[in-house]
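Kindly inspect both lines:
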Amino acid sequence: MSEKKKKRVGRYPAEVRERTVRMVLEHEHEYPSQWKAVESISAKLGINHQTLRNWVNRAETDPAGNRVCRLMSVPGRKLLRREQGAETGE
């Protein structure tokens, strides 16, 4: 049994993950907390709430591994991401 472990292919395509995370980030202001937004959106789309929460957490982590402040408003996070993109030349 020296068979190499195969890398698990995700159940959801990257496009679905990206779009769902964007949906949470764009609509979280309509809910009392980001967690409530995740619960609601995941239920509507048939995605496990913890799975979606993990995707959002990864998306909120910048390339250096630093967390983006959750208290920052959605437009503030978007501005920060644009500024970071401009600094890196993206």
Notes: The mean pLDDT is 78. The chain has one domain: 14-88.
